[in-house]
Write a structure and sequence with these properties.
Blueprint (H helix, E strand, L loop, with lengths): L1 H13 L14 H11 L5 H11 L5 H9 L6 H14 L8 H5 L7 H9 L1 H11 L14 H10 L5 H9 L1 H4 L5 H8 L4 H13 L3 H6 L1 H4 L5 H13 L5 H8 L5 H14 L3 H12 L5 H10 L8 H7 L5 H14 L6 H7 L5 H13 L6 H7 L5 H10 L5 H11 L5 H13 L5 H8 L5 H13 L3 H13 L4 H14 L4
Helix pairs in contact: 1-3, 2-3, 3-4, 3-5, 4-5, 5-7, 7-10, 10-13, 13-16, 16-17, 16-18, 17-18, 18-20, 20-22, 21-22, 22-24, 23-25, 24-26, 25-26, 27-28, 28-30, 29-30, 30-32, 31-32
C-alpha cells in the first residue's frame, strides 16, 4: 500500500509540468523546478516525497539544493527519498551533500544508516576530491569531529549490516578505532563481524587487544576465525603468542593445526621442523597459501634452508616452484649452481622460466659462460633468446661461436637477432653469412639480411643485391630489395 501511494504521488507531481501557466502556455523548465520546490513546504508527506523524487531528475543547482534539504526532513520517508536520489547521482552529487549525508549515520532509521554505510567509499572519495586542498591550503580538509565520532559509533551500531559495512570501509575513514570498540567487535555475536574485526586488528598490528580475547578466539566456533588467529600470532613476534599456538595444535580442524605449526616455525625456525613442514608441503597437507608462507619463512634459516628449497624446486606445484626459485636465486652461486639453473630453464611452468630469464638478464654480469651456452640449447624460445642477449657478456671468440649456432635455430626471429649481433660484433665473415641468409627459408631472416647488407655501405654489396633481384625479379625478396634500395639509398632499380 505504501509503495502504491508513493507511485501515485510521483505520478501526480510529474504531471504538473504539463499544466498551463498563467498565460495559458506550458510551464518552463525553471517554472517547473520552482513549483516543485514549493511542494517541499507541503504538510503532505506523499507530496514532499514525490517532489524530492522529481527534483532528483534535474541537475540545476536549485533542484539539487532542494533534494539536499530533504535530508533534514522530519519524516523518514522523505529522508530516504532524498538519500536514494543523491546516492544514485554518484560523482555528479553536489559536494555540499556529502556532510549532511554522513551525518545521517546518527539517523534513527536503520535503512538510512545501512544506505549511508554501504556508500562510504563513494562519499569519502567525493569529499577528498572536493576538499583536496589548493595552493593556499595544501592539506586535505579532515571530516568534522561530529562525522568522525559518527563513524566510530557506527562500528557498534545495533544493526549488523551497518557494523559489517563499517569494518569493510575502515581504511577509507581516516579514524583511529578505540581499543574498547575493537574488543567489543572481536566478541560480536555475528560471525562475519568477529572475523573482519580480527582481520582488521591484524592489519593494524593491534595484537595486544587480540591477546586480551585469546581465550575466546582459540575456542571460537568459526574455523576461519581460529585459522586467522593462528596466522596473526605467527606474523607478530609477541610474548604470550606461543602458549596459544600450542593450544591450537590440539584443535579439531587439521587446517588450523597446520596453521599453528607453521606459525610456531615462523616464531622459532629450526631445520628439524623445516624438514617435517616440507613433507607437509610436498604431500599437499598445507593449503596453497600456507605452503607459500612456509617457503617464504625458509629465508630465516639462511644457508640451512637450501636443501629444503632444492626439494621444493622438484615439487609438482608450479606456484611453489616459483616461490622457491625466488628465494633460491637470492642464495645461488651461479658458478656452482650452473647445472641446477640450466635445468630450471627447462621448467614446465612458463612463469618459472620467465622469472629466471628476467633475473639472469638483470644480473647478467654474474652469469657464467657455461650457463649461457646451456641456455642457448634450451627447449623454450624465451630461454634461448635470453642466452642470445647474454652473448654480449662473452669474449669475442666464444660469443661468435654461439651466435653461429643460432643461425640454425628453429625460430626465425632468433636467427634474425643472431645476424644483428654478428653484425654488431663486426664478425669477419659477416658478408658471406648475410649472403647465405638471403636463402633462408623464412622471409623475416631474408629481409633482415637485405637491410644489414645495405647497412654495410659497400658498393659491391649493392651490386650483389641487384644480381639477386635480377635472378628472380618477381619474387617477394626481389621486390623487398627494390623497395629498400629506393627507401634507404634513393636508388631506383
Amino acid at each position: 500500500m505504501a509503495s502504491f501511494v508513493l507511485l501515485w504521488a510521483f505520478a501526480s507531481v510529474a504531471q504538473e509540468p504539463g499544466e498551463p501557466s498563467r498565460d495559458g502556455g506550458l510551464l518552463t523548465h525553471d517554472e517547473t523546478i520552482w513549483r516543485v520546490l514549493q511542494d517541499l513546504e507541503s504538510d503532505n508527506v506523499d507530496t514532499r516525497v514525490g517532489s524530492i523524487m522529481l527534483l532528483g531528475k534535474y541537475r540545476a543547482p536549485e533542484a539539487l539544493l532542494g533534494v539536499v534539504s530533504g535530508l533534514f526532513d522530519d519524516h523518514v520517508r522523505v529522508r530516504r527519498a532524498a538519500l536514494v536520489s543523491l546516492i544514485e547521482m554518484q560523482s555528479s552529487m553536489p559536494p555540499s551533500a556529502v556532510e549532511p549525508i554522513l551525518l545521517l549515520m546518527y539517523d534513527e532509521d536503520r535503512e538510512i544508516r545501512r544506505m549511508v554505510s554501504s556508500s562510504l567509499g563513494m562519499l569519502v572519495n567525493l569529499w577528498n576530491t572536493y576538499f583536496q586542498g589548493n595552493e593556499q591550503v595544501p592539506v586535505r580538509q579532515m571530516f568534522p569531529l561530529a562525522i568522525q565520532q559518527g563513524f566510530i559509533e557506527a562500528f557498534l551500531d545495533e544493526d549488523v549490516v551497518v557494523r559489517r559495512n563499517m569494518l569493510s570501509d575502515y581504511f577509507f575513514l581516516g579514524i583511529q578505532l578505540p581499543e574498547s570498540t575493537l574488543l567489543t567487535l572481536l566478541a560480536d555475536e555475528d560471525d562475519l563481524v568477529r572475523l573482519e574485526a580480527l582481520r582488521l586488528a591484524g592489519r593494524l598490528s593491534r595484537i595486544a587487544a587480540v591477546l586480551q580475547l585469546a581465550s575466546l578466539l582459540v575456542e571460537d566456533p568459526v574455523q576461519s576465525i581460529r585459522l586467522l588467529f593462528a596466522n596473526i600470532l605467527g606474523s607478530h613476534d609477541i610474548s604470550g603468542g606461543i602458549e596459544w599456538l600450542e593450544i591450537l595444535l590440539e584443535d579439531g580442524d587439521d587446517e588450523v593445526v597446520k596453521e599453528a605449526e607453521l606459525s610456531l616455525f615462523r616464531i622459532r625456525p629450526h631445520a628439524r621442523e623445516a624438514l617435517r613442514l616440507t613433507e607437509h608441503l610436498m604431500t599437499g597437507s598445507f593449503n596453497q597459501q600456507q605452503g607459500l608462507v612456509f617457503i617464504q619463512s625458509l629465508s630465516q634459516l639462511k644457508e640451512q634452508g637450501r636443501p629444503f628449497l632444492d626439494s621444493i624446486l622438484e615439487s609438482g606445484n608450479p606456484t611453489y616452484r616459483l616461490a622457491a626459485l625466488r628465494l633460491f636465486l637470492a642464495y645461488a652461486d651461479f658458478q656452482v649452481d650452473t647445472g641446477k639453473l640450466a635445468g630450471l630453464a627447462n621448467d614446465k611452468s612458463e612463469r618459472v622460466r620467465l622469472y629466471l630469464a628476467g633475473y639472469l638478464l638483470a644480473n647478467r654480469k654474474k652469469v657464467p659462460a657455461a650457463l649461457i651456452e646451456d641456455l642457448a640449447f634450451a627447449r623454450h624460445e624465451k630461454m634461448r633468446e635470453t642466452a642470445l642477449i647474454l652473448t654480449r657478456e662473452l669474449p669475442q671468440n666464444r660469443a661468435e661461436m654461439l651466435l653461429l649456432d643460432f643461425l640454425i635455430d628453429e625460430t626465425p626471429r632468433l636467427r634474425a637477432q643472431a645476424l644483428d649481433e654478428l653484425k654488431l660484433r663486426q664478425y669477419s665473415d659477416i658478408r658471406n653469412i648475410l649472403h647465405l641468409s638471403l636463402a633462408d627459408p623464412d622471409g623475416l631472416v631474408q629481409r633482415r639480411s637485405v637491410v644489414l647488407l645495405i647497412g654495410l655501405n659497400d658498393p659491391e654489396e649493392l651490386i650483389y643485391l641487384k644480381s639477386v633481384m635480377e635472378k628472380d625479379p618477381k619474387s617477394p625478396l626481389a621486390q623487398y630489395i627494390k623497395d629498400q634500395m629506393l627507401r634507404r639509398l634513393g636508388v631506383q632499380l
